[in-house]
């Protein structure tokens, strides 16, 4: 996590259900922005705003491959939040497989098919 990214930024990014759903989708593999947008009933511009918030929080990275912009999950970005939660002694380290199952159950999202 870059020094400019703090816990408030990470938790604010995670507070939105659309952004959590996007993270869940990216657990499987990198995705083109248009593929990320497909299951949502909102404009590509609105999805792009969500992706920008996730990128600013360090939760995803984006790069351009040819004419297509791709999104990639940055799972280490959750490490700082996990460490903070552990300091309360009530939480275990974030297990990304368990996190994915949690997101899928909370958002009622079917696992992505390749």
From TrEMBL:
Cross-referenced Pfam families: HTH_5
Family matches, as PANTHER family: SLL0088 PROTEIN, TRANSCRIPTIONAL REGULATORY PROTEIN
Stored CDD domains: HTH_ARSR (cd00090)
Molecular function GO labels: DNA-binding transcription factor activity
Taxonomic superkingdom: Bacteria
Database matches in PROSITE patterns: HTH_ARSR_2
Matching InterPro entries: ArsR-like_HTH, HTH_ArsR_DNA-bd_dom, WH-like_DNA-bd_sf, WH_DNA-bd_sf
Coiled coil: none
Domain HTH arsR-type: 1-95
The protein's name in its UniProt record: Transcriptional regulator, ArsR family
């Amino acid at each position: 996590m870059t020094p400019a990214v703090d816990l408030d930024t990470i938790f604010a990014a995670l507070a939105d259900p659309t952004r959590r759903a996007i993270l869940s989708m990216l657990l499987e593999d990198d995705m083109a922005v248009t593929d990320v947008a497909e299951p949502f009933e909102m404009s590509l511009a609105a999805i792009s705003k969500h992706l920008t918030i996730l990128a600013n929080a360090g939760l995803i990275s984006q790069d351009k491959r040819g004419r297509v912009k791709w999104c990639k999950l940055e799972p280490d970005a959750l490490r700082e939040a996990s460490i903070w939660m552990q300091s309360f002694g009530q939480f275990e380290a974030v297990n990304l497989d368990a996190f994915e199952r949690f997101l899928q159950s909370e958002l009622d999202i079917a696992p992505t098919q390749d």
